[in-house]
Amino acid sequence: MTPTLRPVLMLIRARSSGTLARWRIEHVPCSRRSGIKGVRVRILRFIFVGICIWGVGVQLFSAVRDNSAVNTDRLERQTESRGERQARLESLGLAQRYEVHSLIGNRRDALFVEQDFEQIEAWLESLYAQSDDPYLAHNYYRSMFKLIEIRHGLSPEAMDGVLKAWIARDPEAYRPHFLRGRFLIEYGWHVSPLPYGKKVRFKANELFLEAEAELALAEEANKDDPNAAAAQVIVALGLRRGMASVDAAFQRAIEADQDNLIARYNRLHAVLPKCGGSWEAVDEAVEEAKRASVAFPMLNIMARYSAFEMQTRGRSYVDFHDSWETQVSFAHPYMGQLDRNEGDLILLCNAARYASKGREFALAESFFSEIGDRFYIDSNFKDLMEFNDYRAWTHAKVARTQEEPLRSELLERALEIAPTHYYTNYAMGVEKLAAADLDSADTHLTRSQERNPDYGPVYVGLAELAQRKGDTNGAEVYARRALKQGVSGVLEAQAREILDN
């Protein structure tokens, strides 16, 4: 316990136990029980309470004032993790296989390092010119957001300095004002440890006020671009302007673009219970997006955002979100959008991800086949390593439904895609075990177990392998481990049979 808080807790205990009067007498150095003592007690009490309030205030102030150091450390750890995963890809020879695509390419360097404002303006204008297509309009917004999101390696202060320089160069242009306004929102959340709907303090509050002013200038300069109004939904939420202000900004964005997704996404956050709203309001936001999705199927991803947030309501909502049926339903908006934006790589990647998570492997394989050796880093995959793992896992799952010799050919392909993945090695190990190639089976099953010690089925394979090698004790150990991991169905029967024999 800190020295500052100890007197506060002593005082609270004294009050709660009904011994406050005795506590005062015992802790005030007074030699007489007279009127003078009472005056001294009041003076000391006033000083004592003031010190306590000051001490607690200092601690709270330090906790609430600025959380940027914590977030900067988090970003640095994420960068290190990405670097390690990239190094693993390169060591496996996988990084060279893929053609990697990005919404913004190297344009963050063009903006913040080279300060080539003309190049950025021309690029964004070319994206904006395609805004008649609601999906491309959404990617236009996402490109701007990716441009100014806070990442490790470039300080927010330096980024803000560049954006100010861009504004100073062309004060009448609306896009620099929008980009700085949207950046200041990110900066505000970066320094504030408190989530949506809570009172933000100090520097964060000032940043939101600056963002509000910049976004107002951007909206005034171009009312046809909905993104400034959509961003003001977040500002109204952060500054606690109330739902009237939230809804006013939302309506302005929808009037400019009736298919706007980001305005709906921002408003969904504003009506969450943790922000003072209700789950009924969340349901209404999802239903509104569903009605509007006829022209823009991607709007149905609002259901995914809702399901994610609703996990806080209890275990049944977590189970609903994680169920195979729910996960594959998350693929449907992307599949619907592919009917309108055929062959779009981001849509293909996202459809493949959720179809695979939903265990619709044949469907996922159709998307992965179309994608081939390409990857879009702005899809919902964490990174290229995760994409590669999902691709190989899906390929191996589909392979195991085929007859020989196609099955072995496809398993070889899956293993070539992800040579160290736990499932590709498990699938190949089981295949080699069935073919009585015990040495190869041992290699792959052991590698699978090392890569994922919690994967129960691999222990059934290892148990059968040990049994075939005459290692009765090892077979029993692996069979028990399989049952401990919760294998079921045919695999459970196999494990129990090994133990019985």
Physical arrangement of strands within the biggest beta sheet: 1-2
Apparent shape: elongated
Tally of DSSP helical segments: 27
Structural class: mainly alpha
Give start-end ranges of low-pLDDT stretches: 1-34, 55-65
Q: What is the tally of beta strands?
A: 2
Distance between the termini: 59 Å
What is the H/E order?
Answer: HHHHEHHHHHHHHHHHHHHHHEHHHHHHH
Mean pLDDT metric: 87
Q: Beta-sheet strand percentage?
A: under 5%
Radius of gyration: 30 Å
Task: Give the biggest sheet.
Answer: 2 strands, parallel
| Share in helix | over 70%
Summary tags:
single chain; 501 residues; mainly alpha; two-stranded parallel ribbon
Q: Could you give the topology of this structure?
A:
Elements (H helix, E strand, L loop, with lengths): L5 H12 L2 H8 L7 H30 L3 H24 L7 E3 L5 H6 L4 H12 L5 H15 L7 H14 L4 H18 L10 H20 L5 H12 L4 H14 L4 H10 L8 H14 L9 H8 L5 H8 L1 H6 L2 H7 L6 H13 L3 H11 L2 E3 L7 H16 L6 H12 L4 H13 L3 H14 L4 H13 L3 H13 L4 H12 L1
Parallel strand pairs: 1-2
Descriptive overview:
71% of the residues lie in helices and 1% in strands. It contains 27 helices and two strands. It has helices spanning 6-17, 20-27, 35-64, 68-91, 107-112, 117-128, 134-148, 156-169, 174-191, 202-221, 227-238, 243-256, 261-270, 279-292, 302-309, 315-322, 324-329, 332-338, 345-357, 361-371, 384-399, 406-417, 422-434, 438-451, 456-468, 472-484, 489-500, and strands at 99-101, 374-376. The protein has a two-stranded parallel ribbon. Helix 19 packs across helix 21, helix 20 crosses helix 21 (384-399) and helix 26 (472-484) runs antiparallel to helix 27.
